[in-house]
Every structure is written in C-alpha cells, then in structure tokens.
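Incident log, support desk, overnight shift.

02:14 A customer reports that sequence design results differ from what the structure should imply. Their input is reproduced verbatim below. On-call engineer (initials T.W.) acknowledged and began investigating.
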C-alpha cells in the first residue's frame, strides 16, 4: 500500500480518514473539501505549509536570539550606581553571589532551552524534508520533548520579574528592564510558534503522497 511493506498498518489517508484538529473526531474524507461534521472546523490531512512556516518561525527566533544574549536585559541601581546586565553576566553574578539555583534556572531557561529547540527543530525539519526513515520513534519523542519544554520557556522572564520585585524592596535601589528582555520574549514567542507549526505526522510520511502534495499546494 503506497509502496510500503505488506505488514505495515494502513495510514489514515489510506482509509480516507482525517482527525479533526479541534475536537479529535475521525472524519470521512471521501468528499472534499470538507469540514468537521461535529465542530465545523476545516479538515487537513497535514498542516498546510507546515515545513515552510516552521522554518520561517525558527529562523526568526534565531535572529532574535543573538541580540537577546548580547544586549542587557536589566539595569540595576544600588546606592546611586547603575549597571546593565546581560543574560550571561546575570548568570555569572548570581553564581558568584551564591545564588546558584537562580543562576542555573536562568542559564537553562535562557540559553540551554532555546539552543535545544533550535537543534531539535532543525533535525526534525531536515529529516522530514528528506522523508527519512531514520529513528522515527526517537524523533517523535524529540518533538514531544520540545512541546514539553515549551511550557517552561517564559521561566527566565518570570525570574527577572522576581528579581526586580526583590530589588525594589531594598532601600536606595531600583531596577529597570532593558531591550534584551524584549528580544528574549520574541525568541520565546517564535520558538513556540515554530514548534506549533511543525506537523509530527510528517515524520512518518516516508513515501511520496500526491494527496498530501496536492492538499498543501492548494493552501
């Protein structure tokens, strides 16, 4: 079936079925174009332009990732003296002051997590475009990992807000945000959009499919 080994289970498109993205109903796709009979949402066998949109969002996040790490994210004033802090310098300062837990949280949320997302999404995109059969189960798990860590992407922004609140409680001290925090917020936003745009079912599309090609092209 579609050039697959005879012991391979049929895919949903082989049975003219499509799962609704909104309510999860398995819908008959014999008559197209079609909407879900339960919630009236548009049906797609695959997310339209999934690879193109994922590449676009990820590259945009990568562009913003550079100023997010180079520009200061906050300015702290203590006893009339102010100093700008980037993400890296903030991690070093917290570590040297003994707050290694906060330093570790900022490092993981601001540097490690975006870096992992970039590497994993690039791997998923390249292998999906090549219709590779390499480590499909492991790649599916990697995608779920990106989804899980995406929920913690705003952790660094929350840490900065917490530090700002703590500083303002002290006398003769103040803290102000700097442009770096805006760029970091954009990195978080575009990495989340890139992960949401990728269709993990493409991992299992190892054979050319005219149905999917025509459907994506029509959108």
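02:41 Re-run completed on a clean worker. Output:
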């Amino acid at each position: 079936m579609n050039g697959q080994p005879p012991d391979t289970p049929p895919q949903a498109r082989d049975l003219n079925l499509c799962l609704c993205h909104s309510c999860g109903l398995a819908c008959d796709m014999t008559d197209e174009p079609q909407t879900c009979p339960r919630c009236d949402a548009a049906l797609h066998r695959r997310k339209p332009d999934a690879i193109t949109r994922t590449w676009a969002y990820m590259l945009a996040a990568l562009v913003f990732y550079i100023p997010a790490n180079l520009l200061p994210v906050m300015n702290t004033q203590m006893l009339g003296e102010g100093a700008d802090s980037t993400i890296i310098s903030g991690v070093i300062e917290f570590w040297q002051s003994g707050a290694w837990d906060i330093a570790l949280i900022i490092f993981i949320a601001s540097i490690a997590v975006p870096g992992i997302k970039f590497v994993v999404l690039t791997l998923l995109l390249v292998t999906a475009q090549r219709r590779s059969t390499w480590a499909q189960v492991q790649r599916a798990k990697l995608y779920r990992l990106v989804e899980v860590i995406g929920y913690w992407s705003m952790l660094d922004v929350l840490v900065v807000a917490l530090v700002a609140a703590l500083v303002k409680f002290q006398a003769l001290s103040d803290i102000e945000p700097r442009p770096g925090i805006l760029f970091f917020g954009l990195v978080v936003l575009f990495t989340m959009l890139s992960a949401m745009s990728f269709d993990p079912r493409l991992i299992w599309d190892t054979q050319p499919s005219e149905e999917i090609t025509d459907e994506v092209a029509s959108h």
